[in-house]
Automatic annotation (TrEMBL):
GO cellular component, one term: peroxisome
Cofactors: FAD
Domain Acyl-coenzyme A oxidase N-terminal stretches: 21-135
Domain Acyl-CoA oxidase C-alpha1: start-end pairs: 281-442
Organism encoding this protein: Physcomitrium patens (Spreading-leaved earth moss)
Localization per Swiss-Prot or TrEMBL: Peroxisome
Protein's name in the database: Acyl-coenzyme A oxidase
Residues covered by the Acyl-CoA oxidase C-terminal domain: 482-656
Organism lineage string: Eukaryota, Viridiplantae, Streptophyta, Embryophyta, Bryophyta
């Protein structure tokens, strides 16, 4: 999608492409219809001055937030006035490109009501939420506890005399802290609190608590609420009002407890349904599955900037070629950049698969089939963890790949990083989530002789074979076989999991021993997730990929798999499945893949179809006219509003005109 000024500095690069660009764009968008919607919404946002991202990094917090409110309000108005569908509305939000309260309203508040509310409760709350007559947030985390949900301290004590719950924050650490949209925008909070009936603590349950007046938006009596303060980076996540919230014996009706999983009757009786309590974590599973495709989008933005810039930037030369070399020609640049490009493609493919996995589990849950829930939980938690960590590191690596100019906000990369990096923490700290995967692997292995593992854990059913047979690769091209590659990842993961499971089995089963082994448990969880990523990327390619793009996708898939193999060579070698020589052969194959990517690199990032408006980067411009726009951009800097800087008279002039030796000067 070209929106430059006509002159294409990257035309030579684009002419080298060896695949069907349009087909790739459609593939990456998820289909022809999605592609068309995406194109339409990207243009709609780019052409509307209210959505402009200019100056975002220069705005003070108050202005930044107000501007964000303006954009969110305008987005909602646009959705209504143009009668946009849900898919179109989501795409519009995507291109507006800043975290805001509506994310939590649509992304967590509504899904939690759908998942945990009874039909009656859904009828009551969802219409209000859908028309945004109320704005909701997801208030789970507290000052004292985030990961340990069972440790939350807010209480909801039932009072049968009035048929109400009394919401209370008994300690400082029970203060709700972090919920997005809570600080200034929300009228309602989905509060996770300890349910107490007749002095008995039934653990954590969800409640809808009104927190602000629907008349004038002031906090309701005995509710203390506000924003928790400025966060990391300029712009970034500071458009969001992450908030604090305290209740001082605030009364809400009994019907405000979401009662699909458990009920409190009028006379104060607590009744659990026969559904697993983990369904209470459903909103988190929903967001985690969506985070994988988001990771691909964020990483692809950084990679688009770094690839285009690397094709424009020239440094040094060699005696064989005239002029200076494009930095993309350097092997070191390729070996840092191309695996990230391949990773963005891998996450897109796996993200599509995640959507189908989630749709499948939702269908099953509706039919009261909970059998796949543990595997889906492990999968969503693990892939959320791996993909966000790699993406955050990848954005930072792309910044370094752009040299000094990458450090300027004009590159778009610092703000991208600041907006993205909290994804490693929110929706579950990444280490905590890997430990959940590890627990799932241990449980699966402990039952393997009785229960055949399914889905992404099915390979553990072959644990004996995977533990005894070693890799047969003897020449580089032996690696160019997806079964060989898959078996390597399966064997490494199975062996790592089995080793730590065996060590734990030999012990006393104490929590201390478990803790002692958590580094190995995290490593084995990571190995399992890397296997899922490689195997699902391969699987997606093998199911109906159009001819005009299949070859390039295969190259990217091998690039991804080989770079994972090499980056984790220590683990692969330690399991004894592969030898050092086999790793060396994979390294050579990876270089061949780089040669195949090189002529296609710019077109491969064009295929992500990010508009200049969405990228917001002088380095990643479609037309490659980097230097003109960096230079022009400097004149937008507020320090350059005046030729002589504000502060000269008071602070610079005295220094320049004192004409005195400093007392300690030796000169
Ligand atoms: C204009 C339109 C605009 C529209 C825009 C829309 C855009 C949408 C985008 C959305 C963006 C959202 C931004 C996100 C913001 C961040 C929100 C948050 O951080 S929110 C806050 C996020 N906070 C966090 O993420 C907190 C992280 N902490 C946790 O998730 C949990 O406390 C825990 C899992 C670590 C432990 O929990 P604990 O209760 O101690 O559990 P145990 O360890 O004892 O395990 C017991 C059993 O349960 C099992 N199981 C566990 N979980 C699940 C699950 N989800 N499922 C199923 N099962 C699960 C587990 O395997 C075990 O099984 P078994 O072995 O018995 O068979
Ligand atoms: C930008 C942002 C937005 C957020 N939005 C929301 C929201 O809308 N709603 C909401 O409810 N919450 C929200 N949160 C909170 C977020 O979900 C939590 O911060 C997150 O779940 C991590 O929990 P924590 O802060 O308690 O970290 P902690 O658990 O305190 O983690 C601190 C460190 O301890 C380690 N650690 C903790 N326990 C263990 C263990 N058992 N074993 C090994 N290591 C351990 C962790 O790995 C980490 O390194 C948001 C957070 C951020 C940053």
């Amino acid at each position: 999608m070209q929106d430059g000024n006509g002159l294409d500095h990257l035309a030579g690069e684009r002419a080298m492409a060896q695949f069907d660009l349009q087909a790739m764009k459609v593939y990456l968008a998820g289909g022809q219809r999605e592609y068309e919607i995406s194109t339409k919404m990207a243009q709609l946002v780019a052409n509307d001055p209210v959505f402009s991202k200019e100056d975002r990094v220069r705005l003070a917090r108050k202005d930044l937030y107000k501007n964000s409110l303006r954009k969110a309000g305008h987005a909602w108005k646009t959705i209504l006035e143009k009668g946009l569908s849900e898919v179109e509305g989501l795409k519009l939000r995507h291109f507006v490109d800043e975290p805001t309260y509506t994310d939590l309203h649509w992304g967590m508040f509504i899904p939690a009501i759908k998942g945990q509310g009874t039909e009656e409760q859904q009828h009551k709350w969802l219409p209000l939420a859908y028309k945004m007559a109320i704005i909701g947030c997801y208030a789970q985390t507290e000052l004292g506890h985030g990961s340990n949900v069972q440790g939350l301290e807010t209480t909801a004590t039932f009072d049968p005399t009035t048929d109400e719950f009394i919401m209370h924050s008994p300690t400082v650490t029970s203060t709700k802290w972090w919920p997005g949209g809570l600080g200034k925008a929300s009228t309602h909070a989905l509060v996770y609190a300890r349910l107490i009936t007749d002095k008995k603590d039934h653990g954590i349950h969800a409640f809808i608590a009104p927190i602000r007046s629907l008349e004038d938006h002031t906090p309701l009596p005995n509710v203390t609420v506000g924003d928790i303060g400025v966060k990391f980076g300029n712009g970034g996540y500071n458009t969001m009002d992450n908030g604090f919230l305290r209740f001082d014996h605030v009364r809400i009706p009994r019907e405000n407890m979401l009662m699909r999983l458990a009920t409190v009757t009028k006379d104060g009786k607590y009744v659990r349904s026969n559904k697993p309590r983990q369904l209470g974590y459903g909103a988190m599973v929903f967001v985690r599955q969506g985070i994988v495709i988001d990771a691909s989008i964020y990483l692809s933005r950084a990679v688009t900037i770094a690839v285009r810039y690397s094709a424009v930037r020239r440094q040094f030369g060699n005696k064989d070629e005239p002029g200076e070399l494009q930095v993309i020609q350097y092997r070191t640049q390729q070996s840092r950049l191309f695996p990230l490009l391949a990773t963005a493609y891998a996450y897109r493919a796996v993200g599509f698969w995640m959507k189908s996995l989630y749709a499948d589990v939702m269908k099953r849950l509706n039919d009261n089939d909970f059998s796949t829930l543990p595997e889906v939980h492990a999968c969503t938690a693990g892939l959320k963890s791996i993909t966000t960590s790699v993406t955050a590191d990848g954005i930072e690596e792309c910044r370094k790949l752009c040299g000094g100019h990458g450090f300027l906000c004009a590159s778009g990369l610092p703000e991208l990083y600041a907006a993205y990096v909290p994804a490693c923490t929110y929706e579950g700290d990444n280490t905590i989530l890997l430990l959940q995967v590890a627990r799932f692997l241990l449980k699966t292995l402990s039952q393997v002789s009785k229960v055949r593992p399914v889905g992404t854990a099915a390979y553990l059913g072959n644990i004996k074979q995977l533990s005894t047979q070693n890799c047969k690769v003897s020449q580089g091209h032996d690696w160019l076989n997806t079964s060989v590659l898959l078996e390597a990842f399966e064997a490494r993961s199975a062996r790592q999991a089995a080793a730590v499971a065996l060590r734990l089995a030999k012990g006393s089963g104490s929590e201390a021993e478990f803790q002692e082994n958590t580094p190995e448990l995290v490593e084995s969880a990571r190995a399992h997730c890397q296997l899922i990523l490689v195997s699902k990327f391969i699987e997606q390619l093998q199911t109906g990929t159009p001819e005009g793009i299949r070859k390039q996708l295969e190259v990217l898939c091998y690039t991804y798999a080989f770079s994972q193999l090499i980056d984790n060579a220590g683990d692969f070698l330690a399991t004894g499945y592969v030898t050092g020589n086999q790793i060396a052969l994979a390294k050579e194959e990876l270089k061949h893949m780089f040669d195949k990517i090189r002529p296609n690199a710019v077109a491969l990032v064009d295929a992500f179809d990010h508009t200049d408006d969405y990228l917001g980067s002088a380095l990643g411009r479609y037309d490659g006219d980097v230097y003109t726009h960096l230079y022009k951009g400097a004149f937008k800097e507020s320090l350059n509003d005046t030729v002589v800087v504000d502060g000269y008279e008071e602070y610079l002039k005295p220094v320049l005109t004192q004409n005195l030796w400093a007392p300690h000067s030796k000169l």
